[in-house]
Amino acid sequence: MSGVRPARDRIRIVVVEAHEVFRTGLRLILERQPDMEVVADLPDAGDLQAVVDGFRPDVVLFGTCHRARQTQAIEWLSRRRPSVATLVLMVHSELSLLRELVRAGTCGLFLARSPASELCRAVRTVAGGALYVDPDVAQVCGLSPQLPGPRGRAELSDREWHVLRLLALGYSRQEIARRVGVSVKTVDTYRSRICEKLGLRERSDLVRYALCRGLVQEEC
Questions:
Q1: φ and ψ at 183, to 5 degrees?
Q2: Domain count of the chain?
Q3: pTM of this prediction?
Q4: Contact yes or no for 23/17 (Cβ under 8 A)
């Protein structure tokens, strides 16, 4: 056995990077891996929705691109295409940006100064359904670099997982309803179903569960 995964089993990646030189470099790094395939690369997130629907990637890797569009794209993917993991390649571990990206729903945060081998590990981590935080990023924003494994998908549906995360982040029922695109009554139904599946009772229990699974971290 060669250890090379069949093409259909490779991690399918879309790279979003404003600078062509960096975009090409990222593509070369990833395509050297026998278990990875870059199916598309884009200079910005403007056409990302069409590309995701057309190529059905496992991971979208964001490099340097328009900040507002990047955040909007991550929010859209988290809400509408939760099976697609997002990994953000950051130049600086700016706390306000970190919080913005976490709130948007990114699955991974990676610093550009880290080794290429670590980038590949980060891609595999988020593609496998776990969260990834670069150790230096974790130190800045007070996260644990060793985040627990699955993002709750074994127990919860994609929509339930999304509602759980918003509850743990402190959003009100009305805010969650607007973000998810459902009624407040439906949010209550999701919450009851989540509690039943996880054997929990109070919102504080949901928050603690989310913390243990690495979905959010309490702020000091």
A1: -80, 165
A2: 2
A3: 0.65
A4: yes
What average pLDDT does this structure show over 8-32?
93
DSSP 111-170: ETTS-HHHHHHHHHHHHTTB-EE-HHHHHHHT--SS--SB-STTTS-HHHHHHHHHHHTT
- The band of 209, judged by pLDDT with boundaries at 50, 70 and 90, is low
Same domain, 11 and 96: yes
Same domain as 26, residue 130: yes
pLDDT digits (tens, 9 = 90+) for 156-180: 787 888 888 888 776 788 989 998 8
Confidence class for position 3, pLDDT limits 50, 70, 90: very low
Residue 148 lies in a domain: no
- What is the span of the domain harbouring residue 43? 7-141
Inside any domain, residue 153: no
DSSP letter at 182 equals S
